[in-house]
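Second attempt. The first submission of isochorismate synthase had a stray character pasted in from the spreadsheet, which I only caught after the job came back as garbage. Lesson logged: always re-copy from the clean sequence file. Corrected sequence (518 aa) follows.
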Amino acid sequence: MAAACISGHFLARFIDPEPAKCSISASLISCSRQSSIHFFHHKYQSCSLSMNGCRGDPRAPIGTIETRTFPTVSSPALAMDTLNSAISQLKSDPPPFTSGIIRLQVPIQQKIEAIDWLHAQHYLLLPRCFFSGRTPTGNSDIFNGNGHNSTPKSHNLVSVAGVGSAVFFRHINPFSYSDWKSIKRFLSNKCPLIRAYGAICFDARSNISSEWKDFGSFYFMVPQVELDELEGSSMLATTVAWDTSLSWTWAMAIDALQATMCQVSAIVVKLRKEVPKTYIISNNHIPSKTYWDLAVNRALQLIDTGNSALIKVVLARSSRVVTTTDIDPIAWLACLQVEGENAYQFCLQPPNARAFIGNTPEQLFHRKCLNINSEALAGTRGRGRSTTLDLQVELDLLSSPKDHLEFTIVRESIRKKLEAVCNGVVVEPKKAIRKLPRVQHIYAQLAGRLRSEDDEFDILASLHPSPAVCGFPTEEARLFIAETEVFDRGMYAGPVGWFGGGESEFAVGIRSALVEKG
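This time the job returned cleanly.
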């Protein structure tokens, strides 16, 4: 959903309200709703309080990458005091490097929800990000065949919220291997919590519309200040990054960090996770029902006649909603958390720009060292009103020939792409049901072992877009979407997540919205 202020009213564009998906497989179609948006170009997003890491030489090593941990304190206010003192000390004793990235972190005894902390910073015009992983499942690491990962879990992170960018990465050109290396240049296995959070657009070859222009073709940020919510505690951290070759000196970076710290609130109030009370003034869909029917029929004709290689295509529509009052994207995201078990929650907001938020169940991939997991998710039904009815709906989904075909296309496409860069791929379960609060899907888990960590870029580039949000074959489906849809999807249905030194995780940005503050 995108949003803007029109005549004092709040305007919002929804991308994929819950069960919404329109998939065309063979000659059959199931409809619910997905949505999307557009883009305009600026070569680089300039930000006076940070540097664009894409401008650097991705081959040049960073002078130092460090994490410094301070003693545990009892409250966010004390953590702020500790960090401010540490920053002052750093300023008086600068490191002897022309480039580097340093994270200072203070554990906090009490558990603070990251979404509450981020909401407390709502008045800032700085960039913001939020990412919350799904509830872990017992067989999330299946490559070893015994349900356990050979690498023990090193962090019990629940969710992360960040403001300000120590370094950001943005370009209007498609996300490339060089861009990936530019991000990885600031990351290290030794500092696992230095991460770049962001998203990549669905189709970088489409024109960028005005509502997505601040995101570019991709946008990632390493937060200046972040709150890490852990399973039983929390941690406040600051990160400073500099590179004189990018005209961003140590002095500029440390001054920018201090300026951000002066704006950060240490007072965190528990959010009431209630749906915002507002009234809808208008709700407009792009395309119209008439144009939508024409597009669906055209796709069916291509599939049925056999004159095209197209087997499946997933179309989207954009819903633009105007409401009587402002909707705070962070408060809205907090409401999604209530029904967000087994789903990713995310927020990405460039400086003084719209916020892209979502609650998606769909994993693109998770990499830890050389181990990689992905999943196929396709076919949708609502939940039954009783246990008996819910089971009937589940059996109907599992026995549906149309949904089986759609699911098989997705699963086999992912399997083949993993096999291209992995020594072996395990699919387990091969076909099962994943139940969410409102809907249920067919899913399969896939896992493999990469031959090299550098294969991560190839995995990202090949898995996106998946047949679940684009179609099959990929290029034929992408071209049909580009020719048919009259809006730019932007980050909708694109990869959203984070890169770390030895670990990365991305979801598919569906069930999402673009919200303009104000």
